[in-house]
Amino acid sequence: METCGLSPRFPLRRGWCDHHLHQSGGTLTLKDALEIAASVIVSLGGGGAIVFALSGYLGKIWADRALEKQRQQNTQLNLEFTHQLGLVTELRKSEYQMRAAEHQVRFARLHETRATAIAEMYECLVDAEQDGRRFVTGEGTFTGTPEQKEARQKIQTTMQDLHLFIEKRRIYLPAHMCAALQTHLDKMSSHIYKVGSYGSVRPATPELELTQHDVFVAAYRAFFQEVPAARKVLEDEFRKILDVEKWPAPDGIN
Fold first, then answer.
1. Residue 144, domain CATH
2. pLDDT in tens, 127-182
3. Euclidean distance between CA atoms 241 and 219, whole angstroms
4. Interval 73-88: pLDDT, tens
5. How far apart are CA 22 and CA 28, in angstroms?
6. Cα–chain-centroid distance for residue 191?
């Protein structure tokens, strides 16, 4: 008996196979394959059931081994990825730490330079204020004397030097501090200039003498009240910039 490509031990009628091939247009479909497989199992009888069960068991073992192999490969890939990620993370962390350290060093140097500039400006500001106070209450009022002229030239030079000194260091101060400092210097310079001008000659009339007196009094009040108060405001701003208020006070000092 002829077969459909199966072993001679399990003969099937050729017409049955041809019938299914004819119905499917000459192509073996999944349905046809399943029907053929069922026919084979039926023809095998009990042996077919054993073969079928054994095939399922072996298939399960093969699938489990394949899955286990894939699982091991995935685990190895995860370990390698985690290792590479750790290396990259540590490298980036090291780079960030280096940049932070460099920034900290530059910031520390800038803060040190800024602190030095502010200290020098404040020192010159106090010296100029003391010189201006002595002038408007002393030598500046020596009307028409050589001492007054010499003192006037000296204090004017002091104020010019102070203006230039601070102008070169404006970059270390905020804009509002530069404006406040300029206002403070202008106030001192204005009173010094007025005292120097009105004190350079003796008043020729009572009206001029009264005006001269008012100028001297206004300068006196400015240097003993307004100027120190304005400097105190600047001093507070300097302290904020330098963060000196955050420094801990020594024991016993509140």
1. 1.20.120
2. 999 999 999 999 888 888 899 999 999 999 999 999 999 899 888 888 888 888 89
3. 31
4. 888 888 888 888 888 8
5. 9
6. 46
Say how many Å lie between the first and final Cα of the chain, rounded. Answer: 118
Provide the 3-class DSSP secondary structure of residue 173. Answer: coil
> Do residues 195 and 151 make contact, with C-beta atoms less than 8 angstroms apart?
no
Calculate the alpha carbon distances from 68 to 60, 72, 78, 79, 250 in Å. Answer: 12, 6, 15, 16, 70
Whether 103 maps to a domain, the answer reads no
Is the model's pTM score more than 0.70?
A: no
**Residue 58 forms part of a structural domain:** no
Residues 6+ apart with CB under 8 A from 170: 178
Indicate whether 221 belongs to any domain.
yes
Number of folded domains in the chain? 1
Note down the domain range covering 178.
115-242
- CA angle 134–139–145, rounded 5-degree value: 170
Tens digit of each residue's pLDDT (9 = 90 or more) over 206-244: 898 899 999 999 999 998 888 888 888 888 888 888 776
